[in-house]
Amino acid sequence: MLSLHYGRSRSPCSYRRRTWKMGGKPVIRGRLVTPSVVLTMLAKGASREAVLEAYPALEPADIDACLLYAARLSELGAAEGLTIAAQ
Questions:
Q1: Which residues 6+ apart lie within 8 Å of 38 measured at CB?
Q2: Which H helix or E strand runs over 67?
Q3: What number of CA atoms fall less than 13 Å from residue 59's CA on the CB side?
Q4: 8 Å CB contact between 22 and 31
Q5: 48 close to 60: Cβ distance less than 8 angstroms
Q6: pLDDT tens-place string over residues 50-61
Q7: Global pTM value
Q8: More confident residue, 74 or 21
Q9: 16 and 27 in contact (C-beta within 8 Å)?
Q10: Is 39 exposed, middle or buried (0-12, 13-18, 19+ CB in 10 A)?
């Protein structure tokens, strides 16, 4: 389980891997929303407001946590010599 805490409020924005949810992919705070869904929407030009409208259970801090999650994955990948090509 990767658990992230955002900001000074220490409000948990956690990603949990559960094999019975979303095929074992990380999910945001137990919701049926994965970080990759949020990140893909943002990458395709959706605003934060559009993401929150599409997934009302999310909070603005969840989007920030998704971005942090992606940054950390990128750092881990770079440390292992992996590269990701844009599609």
A1: 28, 51, 55, 58, 62, 63, 66
A2: helix 60-79
A3: 8
A4: no
A5: yes
A6: 999 999 999 999
A7: 0.70
A8: 74
A9: yes
A10: middle
Instruction: Specify the CATH number for 2-79; select among 3.40.50.10710, 3.30.470.20, 3.40.630.30, 1.10.10.10.
Output: 1.10.10.10
Phi-psi label, residue 11: left if phi above 0, alpha if psi -120 to 50, beta otherwise: beta
* In the chain, where the domains are located: 2-79
Phi, psi of 31 (to 5 degrees): -80, 165
Residue 86, pLDDT > 70, answer no
Tokens of 63: 């989007």
Please, which contacts does 10-18 make with residues 24 or more away whose CB atoms are closer than 8 Å?
Answer: 11/59, 11/61, 13/59, 13/61, 13/62, 13/64, 13/65, 15/65, 15/69
